[in-house]
Amino acid sequence: MAREHVGRGDAANFLVKVGGGLALVTLFLLGGLWLVSAYIKRTVDPSPVTIASASVQGLREQNKLSAFQASFVAVVTSKQTQLGLSTDRTIIMPGTVDYSVDLANLRQRDVVWDAKTKTLGVTLPPVTASPPRIDLNAVRYYGHSGILGTFTSAGEKLDAINRDAGQKELTHQALQPETMKLARDATRRAVERSFALPLKAAGITATVRVRFADEGVNDEVWDMSKPIDGVDYSGR
Fold first, then answer.
1. Mean pLDDT calculated for residue range 209-233
2. For position 10, what pLDDT does the model report?
3. Among 39, 71, 77, 143, which is 20 to 30 Å from 31 by CA?
4. Do 98 and 66 contact (CB within 8 A), yes or no?
């Protein structure tokens, strides 16, 4: 008995669902801004460091930010041959993936204020992708059953193989560098706004720069020796 399995990812069917991501970002920003604004009102003379500290606390209380969502389609075909008879099955499996950042792990030391350049630098935990959510009602099965598929369970077995391979293919598509960059950029913009809005509300002109811990060495000119908690981490 010989079994052949072929998997194909249909990258052309990649769709970015901006609407859901924007709704989540809006709720995220409104919640975080309300917490920060309430803190600022209780502060007589808020400084950038004070506002940034409140922003960090507000972000941590949001727990998780999901600013990007994408949809993919996996197309997988499997074939089985036995005693000169063959059957093949193809599955078309759509799936949706959410990309998020665990803000509970954001620390005060991850935010630095450079008074000289009026730049607030924020280092976020890496963006992670959720397991694909499969729309079972949208999954389609195709194939040629033949005698082997009609009188044996070969067709059902190939369908099961295809479903497993389809989920793996969706995960593979979701983690492609181009998609991860889109997710990071969307998250970056959301977090930059969440820090910039309270600063602007307090009349402070500042530039907010956001990067991710897994992006490598920071090549921008930030004074990383001055985290907003006032602790020197350079020797740790």
1. 63
2. 47
3. 71
4. yes
Phi, psi of 129 (to 5 degrees): -105, 140
Closest CA to 38 of 72, 66, 64, 61: 61
> How many CB atoms are located within 10 Å of the residue 171 CB?
17
**Phi–psi pair at 69, nearest 5 degrees:** -140, 140
Q: How far is CA 217 from CA 105, 189, 214, in A?
A: 20, 20, 9
Global pTM? 0.70
Q: Contact 227/236 with Cβ under 8 angstroms? A: no
Structural contact between residues 68 and 141, judged by C-beta atoms closer than 8 angstroms = no
Give the Cβ contact number of residue 225 at 10 Å.
10
Task: Specify which residues 65 forms β-bridges with.
Answer: 101
**Tens digits of residue pLDDT in 153-202:** 667 888 899 999 999 999 999 999 999 999 999 999 999 999 999 999 88
